[in-house]
Amino acid sequence: ATSWLLEGESRSKDVVEENFGLDAHIWQPNPQLLAGNELARTTLEDAKISALDFKEKYGHEPSLAVITLGSLERYTHGVRRKSIYSNDENSWFNKTAVGKSNGFIVNEINLPESTSEEDLLSHLYSVRNCDGIQLMWPLPPHINAAKVYNSIPKDRDVDGAHYIGQMELDSNCSPMAAVTPVAVMDLLDDNDIDVENKSVLVVGRSRIVGSPLAHMLRTAGANVFVAHSKTSKQKLEEMVL
């Protein structure tokens, strides 16, 4: 292949052109996309160490209850995606296996989409013996999201559903932060991206992603604009341009 690339009148046999004369933009990753693979790997290693410390301190492995209503999009074509992107030990599609390989117990509870709000609350109360509770989003429209998320004890709220409310009441407190926004901030920090005095657009205002992320960015000194389902196309274009 190297010989073929170096053939031709425009190439000297003694000099190799940068990138073999090919347009690197065709095959290189988009510089505007941040790869989180290495950060994810080190985060899992830290989680494994934390799980060992927890077991030594409390005498049992940390446990997490994951409750899902209906069939979430993350399970669509899950087998094919799982085989392409990751193995069970670090896959979004198999939280039980991820937990087992990293020293904590995951109890996945999959409920029908038709589950009533009362039954969902009963399940949330029944898993309070777990060290952490994660209620998967989105919820069916007949479920009062604020009510059920508020029923999760603050000390077991691994998704940080209480984060915004607690920070608004007392900015000096240290509530469990929402995990996806924390991952975003860690990724920015890992790539030495300083958002202070920068204009940042956050798409979405959910209580576990958009709203807490906007809060964290403001705390970091960014000028934050939030777009959501009620934002007009004209206003969105103004924000982007």
From TrEMBL:
Domain Tetrahydrofolate dehydrogenase/cyclohydrolase NAD(P)-binding, residue spans: 179-234
One CC-aspect GO term: cytosol
Residue ranges of every copy of the Tetrahydrofolate dehydrogenase/cyclohydrolase catalytic domain listed in the record: 34-159
- Give GO MF terms, alphabetically: methenyltetrahydrofolate cyclohydrolase activity; methylenetetrahydrofolate dehydrogenase (NADP+) activity
Kindly tell me the pathway this chain contributes to: One-carbon metabolism; tetrahydrofolate interconversion
Q: Which domain of life is it from?
A: Eukaryota
Question: What InterPro entries does the annotation carry?
Answer: Aminoacid_DH-like_N_sf, NAD(P)-bd_dom_sf, THF_DH/CycHdrlase, THF_DH/CycHdrlase_cat_dom, THF_DH/CycHdrlase_NAD-bd_dom
One biological-process term from Gene Ontology? tetrahydrofolate interconversion
| Keywords tagged on the record | Hydrolase, Multifunctional enzyme, NADP, One-carbon metabolism, Oxidoreductase
The family database entries (PANTHER family) matched by this protein are listed as: C-1-TETRAHYDROFOLATE SYNTHASE, CYTOPLASMIC (PTHR48099:SF5), C-1-TETRAHYDROFOLATE SYNTHASE, CYTOPLASMIC-RELATED (PTHR48099)
Q: What is this protein called?
A: Tetrahydrofolate dehydrogenase/cyclohydrolase NAD(P)-binding domain-containing protein
What is the organism field in this record? Ditylum brightwellii
